[in-house]
Design goal:
Number of strands of chain B: 5
Order of helices and strands of chain B: HHHHHHHHHEEHEEHHHE
Structural class of chain A: alpha/beta
Number of helices of chain A: 10
CATH class of chain A: Alpha Beta
CATH class of the largest domain in chain B: Alpha Beta
Number of helices of chain B: 13
Distance between the termini of chain A: 39 Å
Number of strands of chain A: 12
Distance between the termini of chain B: 48 Å
Number of domains of chain B: 2
Radius of gyration of chain A: 18 Å
Strand content of chain B: 5-15%
Shape of chain B: elongated
CATH topology of the largest domain in chain B: Outer Surface Protein A, domain 3
Radius of gyration of chain B: 24 Å
CATH architecture of the largest domain in chain B: Alpha-Beta Complex
Largest sheet of chain A: 8 strands, parallel, barrel
Order of helices and strands of chain A: EHEHHEHEEEHEHEHHEEEHEH
Oligomer: heterodimer
Structural class of chain B: mainly alpha
Helix content of chain B: 55-70%
């Protein structure tokens, strides 16, 4: 397998690339070490979209994030979708490719949401097979992201962190650790984030996501429409004190603010890393 | 064999789409109860998330329609459209293209005021603009190939630009669209005396709308239906030799194929 030889910069904090910011990014070239591209927003073959992305790629490393692989789905893998990913990889040479541990499609129903699966040995075999096919097709390792969920299944035989570790062991995939997702699950279901972090194989974490949730008082929605919460910053610090230096991403998908707001969140993440790790990674800003 | 996982996903989807009570009950019984979120609420959250994404896509693609009816009415129409849809496409761009049919259905059932009779046409226009923005790039017209093929006496058909959209209407759609995307109030609109023929296309990176004469429009329609040059000359009743160079220079016609 042709795992990408270059890597995203360790411990450096990137941003999710959003259409609202692209012109500013191309014109001002802000000090951001890398950007993550959401496939669904940037896969057009013609017009302005691919040209803008090429202009960003000229100056920044990219990672490619998708929401439609449906790694947990029982329907056949969508080879057209994977071909789109492959085309994007060829054009923009992202240093990482990632998707979620979920399903998004069943029968004639396509959901623009990430639906959880039970963590059973049957699911494990199935998801392992699909990850293997995807990695073969893309000729690249992928990262699998832990999910925020609003339900858990009685039938699960293991927890999500154990399930993901098994995926890694069987397929060689990496882990995209979303700390906000884990926190949303802790709040909603009472499953400990620290236990989740302690269980995850750190050496296989290829990327960390930080985002803001929406507080509905009784429960949390993983809306990516806010600053990272204090609770999630504390958990990130807990992770960063033990981590092996995976690149970190600030995600913001709804009610998108000015780029400066995202940059300020990135600086905050840099500071947490600087305070939690050796001086090798200390950022001058902090 | 994926008996259990398949069953979970089948019941999950049935529960979220809210159409199969038996499967929904079965699914709810499989969800852990020890959570701040009840099984019923969990299903409701997934339904709202899914529908919310689709409603947001409709709002983004149909701003003029939303301006005409007002945002709360538009959102109600959009929610109804989403709730009645089979979620039959992963691609939101494809999914939302059927929205004009929903508007036509509401107009036919007199659930929208009669003076908004142009609304379904306006939705079609907005969808064409959306498609034009994301359309594939076109090749440059190869005049040498064109000349050579004609000189060889071979009948040809033409390729229309990927971004080309055609719409005819008995209402001044271009003006209505302009009024509403620039946030001016929509004045009362009456049918115009003659049909308005509009071409939607992308010039550079930006979609444009242009009103054209009937001959230009009908020629473009014929081209999109793969009519041959000979058929265009013989049947259209229009001066193809006058129209064609303009269509090519505008980038609306982008190439040729041997016909048949």
């Amino acid at each position: 397998m042709n795992a990408q030889s270059a890597r995203l910069p360790a411990n450096r904090v990137g941003l999710g690339l959003r259409t609202a910011h692209i012109d500013q990014i191309i014109n001002e070239l802000p000090d951001v070490p890398w950007f993550e591209v959401l496939l669904e927003n940037h896969s057009a073959k013609g017009g302005l979209v691919p040209r803008q992305l090429a202009a960003v790629r000229e100056h920044y490393p990219l990672s490619l994030h998708s929401v439609g692989m449906s790694l947990g789905g029982v329907e056949p893998l969508d080879m057209d979708y994977l071909a789109t990913i492959k085309r994007m990889v060829k054009m923009f040479q992202p240093l990482q490719i990632s998707d979620h541990l979920c399903f998004t499609h069943y029968g004639n129903h396509y959901f623009n949401d990430l639906l959880p699966i039970p963590f059973t040995s049957e699911s494990l075999r199935h998801v392992c097979n699909r990850i293997a096919v995807v990695q073969d097709f893309l000729d690249s390792r992928i990262l699998v992201e832990n999910l925020s969920s609003y339900l858990q299944f009685e039938a699960s035989e293991m927890n999500e962190a154990e399930f993901i570790n098994e995926l890694v062991a069987h397929t060689g995939c990496g882990i995209l650790l979303d700390i906000n997702n884990a926190y949303v699950n802790e709040f909603n279901h009472g499953c400990s984030v620290r236990a989740f972090i302690d269980t995850i194989c750190f050496e296989h974490v290829g990327e960390v996501h930080l985002a803001g949730y929406e507080d509905r008082t009784d429960f949390l929605i993983d809306a990516h429409n806010n600053r990272v919460s204090d609770a999630v910053w504390a958990l990130f610090e807990y992770y960063a004190r033990q981590s092996t230096g995976a690149p970190v991403l600030i995600e913001w998908d709804n009610d998108i603010p000015a780029l400066d707001v995202l940059l300020s969140e990135a600086i905050k993440a840099r500071c947490v890393i600087a305070e939690s790790t050796d001086s090798e990674f200390t950022d001058a800003t902090c | 064999m994926l008996d259990h996982l398949q069953l979970y996903e089948s019941e999950f989807v049935a529960a979220v789409s809210g159409r199969a009570d038996e499967q929904r009950r079965e699914f709810l019984s499989k969800i852990k109860k020890k959570s701040r979120i009840s099984p019923q609420l969990a299903v409701e959250i997934y339904r709202n998330n899914t529908q919310g994404v689709r409603v947001a896509a409709l709002e983004q693609i149909y701003p003029a329609c939303a301006s005409v009816v007002g945002s709360s009415v538009f959102r109600a129409i959009a929610r109804e459209f989403v709730a009645n849809d089979e979620y039959g496409s992963a691609d939101l761009n494809t999914y939302v293209g059927a929205f004009h049919r929903r508007l036509q259905h509401l107009l036919s059932g007199e659930r929208l005021p009669a003076d908004l009779v142009y609304l379904a046409d306006l939705a079609r226009l907005e969808y064409l603009l959306h498609q034009a923005y994301y359309a594939d790039d076109d090749p440059l017209f190869d005049f040498n190939d064109f000349e050579q093929t004609i000189n060889d006496g071979i009948d040809i058909s033409f390729h229309a630009s990927h971004s080309l959209g055609l719409i005819d209407s008995g209402y001044p759609l271009h003006q209505i669209w302009m009024n509403n995307v620039t946030q001016q109030c929509a004045s009362r609109v009456n049918a115009i005396n003659a049909t308005q023929y509009l071409v939607v296309y992308r010039d550079g990176f930006k979609p444009h709308i242009e009103a054209v004469d009937d001959c230009t429009y009908l020629t473009l329609v014929a081209i999109t239906k793969a009519c041959s040059l000979q058929q265009l000359v013989e049947r259209s009743g229009c001066e193809i030799t006058r129209i064609l160079p303009d269509l090519i220079s505008r980038g609306w016609v982008t190439g040729i194929s041997k016909h048949g």
